[in-house]
Amino acid sequence: MLGVKIDADPQTIQAAYFGLAKLWHSDRLPPELADVKTAAAKVFSRMSEAFEALSDPVRRKRYVEVMKGGGGTPEEADKIQQIIDAATDFQRAEIFLKKRDAANAEIYATRAFKNDPSRRTTWRCMRPSSR
What we know:
- The protein is mainly α.
- It folds into 2 domains: 10-71; 76-124.
- 69% of the residues lie in helices and 0% in strands.
- The longest helix has 25 residues, at 74-98.
């Protein structure tokens, strides 16, 4: 995320972070790029997480171990977050169903389906049959 080598020293990590922060911080974007402010904020948030992880010796050691094992990519983290969001939305849908609030249950079940389409059969059972 910061474009530094895995064995970079703290000064190199800090310099990389501050250099990228000047480019990606949403408050520093020119007005003509206002439509990408949200995306830039997400990138900046990821960069901040990376900087914090690499600045803490314990977290950095864990990160290096995960990377050497072949895991820990941003794509994997996004997929895990989608699954967590889907599970949370599914639980909310179940709560609304227990409260006999079908409209809100369907909203959350639909969101859960969109976040984790591989669980299609689970979400389908919540939707009333149109047969």
